[in-house]
Amino acid sequence: MSQPQMVQSALDGEPVVARVALGGEDELYATPTRTLIYRSEGLLSDETVEEYSHEAERISVAEGRRKTKVTLDYGLDGEQTFALSNKHLDRALHPVLEGALKANDVLADDEAVERLFRFSELTLVVAGGRVLKHIGASLWDEDFEEYRFDDVTDLQFEGGSVATSVVMTVDGRQERFKTPNEDARQLRETLESALLAHWGVSSLEELRAANVSEEEAASPEGAADAKEVSFGDGPEPLSANPAQLAEEPVNATRTESADSVPESAANGGGVAQQVEATARSVSESPSASDPTSEPADGPAETEAIDSADADVDDDGFEGSGFQSAAADANGRVADELAELRATVERQGEEIREQRKLIEQLVEELRRGR
User: Which residue ranges have biased composition labelled Acidic residues (predicted)?
Assistant: First the structure.
């Protein structure tokens, strides 16, 4: 695929190791030392090429509703930021992070990044010969942990209700970290494939068998004693809700007596006597009835309306020598309708052109212009 002339001039003969489409004619070009972002000419900007060095000490990602800002921190040399559409973020971050890891001598020049996983504040990079783990708000910085496949002798996955625990045995000790269940399968396939390919085996059982030492094979009891005591996987992810209490605690300092009777029950006799006296007084009192009156209907008066006869058939022009103007009016109405139709069609064409411009403007804004 051909490259824009402006990109070829910016590359200056440097090879392109990755190329990512960013929507429209915009593209990202990754070289061994830098990242170039090409922006085609649009309504908001001219044709440009932005250049970002891979020698960054920190890479941060700030995601918005539609766009994401990627910031490369160069320490004393300041920082640079570029914006991308959210749907192109993961594909664009892969070559940028790989270039930064190689520029900082974390990965070998011929070692590729198999896949990048981002879980909230946990970043996992599965490469050809190692796994990199970074915990923090930024995507990557110099404070990270590295597990070389040469030192990994076992790999296990322990499922949970919310997250899956990844257990790697590195130099005889277990390293654990958790991943969400929805991404656990993809991580497992990627990690297993890279680890088995590095060791040249086809299954985890073969990997375990290849790493069994002669002492463990000769002394099973010693191998059993060498197992480490697991203290769990650490705290659960923030998304895991604690179980609700089944019932309220019982107050042991208070007891309810089944024989207790409210004091108001003792005075029930006096209340009953008052009710009977009130009933007798009501029954002896004469009932009063409200007289009802019926409205008197007044005599209805009617008014006589005289109507005059009018001759509606006479149009007033008979025998006067004048002719009706209905024919001329119909012609004028037809001309006005034709002119109005032409105006509506012209305005509709203008609206369609404006809609195309608005759609182009929205697309450029989504691409981070």
Answer: 303-317
